[in-house]
Design a protein that fits this description.
By secondary structure, the chain is mainly α. 83% of the residues lie in helices and 0% in strands. Helix 1 packs antiparallel against helix 2 and helix 1 runs antiparallel to helix 4. It is globular and about 40 Å long.
């Protein structure tokens, strides 16, 4: 009985974490979409790049932690995605012609996977 209660608490905690992560990703998606709709607003673009970079830096650090219980194959895939996103965002800092399209699409897919 104790083990079942413990497992229920742990599952609820994981659900809450996934929900929080989905909300943070939602915020980055909205900001990236708004930036793509207003390409002349450099401050908005900078904020979107910065926030999305911060979020993915957090995710990458968490995934790299030995305490992260994500299955290895999924963890490796998410790390690869995170590295791709970070490289794209870094390139966007110097190449104004690059948009958020690919990063937004990947983020939407990640968010949906968290639900």
């Amino acid at each position: 009985m104790f083990m079942q209660a413990y497992e229920d608490v742990m599952e609820d905690e994981q659900d809450a974490l996934r929900s929080s992560e989905a909300q943070v990703i939602d915020r980055t998606i909205r900001l990236m979409q708004e930036s793509d709709q207003k390409p002349s607003d450099r401050m908005l673009r900078t904020r979107a790049i910065h926030l999305t970079s911060q979020v993915w830096s957090y995710f990458l650090n968490d995934l790299a932690s030995s305490e992260n219980a994500t299955p290895k194959e999924l963890k490796a895939s998410l790390i690869s995605i995170g590295i791709y996103i970070m490289k794209h965002l870094n390139a966007m800092r110097s190449e104004e012609s690059l948009g958020f399209g690919a990063v937004t699409e990947v983020s939407i897919n990640i968010r949906e996977g968290l639900k």
